[in-house]
Write a structure and sequence with these properties.
By secondary structure, the protein is an alpha+beta fold. The chain has two helices and four strands; from the N terminus they run ββαββα.
Amino acid sequence: MSTYIAVLLCQSSSDAEDHVPLYQESFVLVTAQSEAQAREKAAAHGKALETSYENERGELITWRLRHVVDVGEVLDERLTDGSELYARHFRNYAAYRSFEPLLSGEQI
């Protein structure tokens, strides 16, 4: 068995007219015999997390799995202080900054 990190992308929806979708990217540990099995387990995990609830204004909020974005073997199986678990690369910092609210100090 190997340990994998799965990157899941979920999206909120609502019956409220002014609802602006919120997306959540989560990183989940999965143990599996292969990357394909890890991807299947990650999808099942994401589906199991799907939920609906009423917020404080009585609006129905629903969270759904949109994609299993990536599955990669954990880079350092020792899982000690400072272990690198997952890395990804991108070319467009402006695009990354535009979707990452924490970089601009936006409150979620």
